[in-house]
Amino acid sequence: MRFLAAVFSAAFLSGYLVAGEASLPAPGKSGGKPVLDAIADRASAPGNAFPSGKISPEEISTILWAGSGLNRPDRWTIPFGMGVRPYVRIYLADENGVHLYKWDSHALDRITARDIRSAVNSQPFAKVAPCVLVFVSDRTSLRERGRMDEHWAKWTHAAAGAMTQQIYLAADSLGIGARYVEGMDVGLLRSALSIPDDEEPICIMPLGKR
Ligand SMILES: Cc1cc2nc3c(=O)[nH]c(=O)nc-3n(C[C@H](O)[C@H](O)[C@H](O)COP(=O)(O)O)c2cc1C
What we know:
Shape: globular
Bound molecules: flavin mononucleotide
CATH class: Alpha Beta
CATH architecture: 3-Layer(aba) Sandwich
Helix content: 25-40%
CATH superfamily: NADH Oxidase
Strand content: 15-25%
Distance between the termini: 29 Å
CATH topology: NADH Oxidase
Oligomer: single chain
């Protein structure tokens, strides 16, 4: 099992898994820095000295799980209104392209091989970050309860806030710097990720190991 995990990690890091869905290693669900210490230490990584160290597949797995993974058979690490399926997607952009986080299978689904990190944000720190998370609404599960898009927009913004805050804390616990960034090239994201007009890129979050 350990050997398979090592092979997977090597394949993942080298970009060998170029098509389809790739499983993530199991997330770390215990230990780390006590949560109150992580709250006390929470800070955005500085834009003028953004950490650029590589992040391991295990760390990415834990960060994505903290953002919107399952922590009960039918509920998630952050609250989703009415307990419906997550209505904000997380995309992981790194040197190998962009993957969609599949919370149901805890896997990554390849969307494009294009490296969009430096294009998605003009600020220099996005260029040194080894990966950038992109948060995009997916109101499908909400619209199943009725078409109320202005109302549902608030819900997706609330979810993105909870997801990014939880990622700030998980990242701090792992020694990873993170920064919530609203400034992004929405047009580029829409075309690179095929985001429909009635869905919305909400923010991005560059990450780097300190
Ligand atoms: C809604 C929101 C939008 C933000 N947008 C940007 C941004 O576009 N660019 C940037 O460098 N930082 C951005 N930030 C990061 C803030 O500048 C940062 O959180 C703030 O300076 C407070 O620092 P702290 O997070 O260390 O407490 C944003 C933060 C929030 C919450």
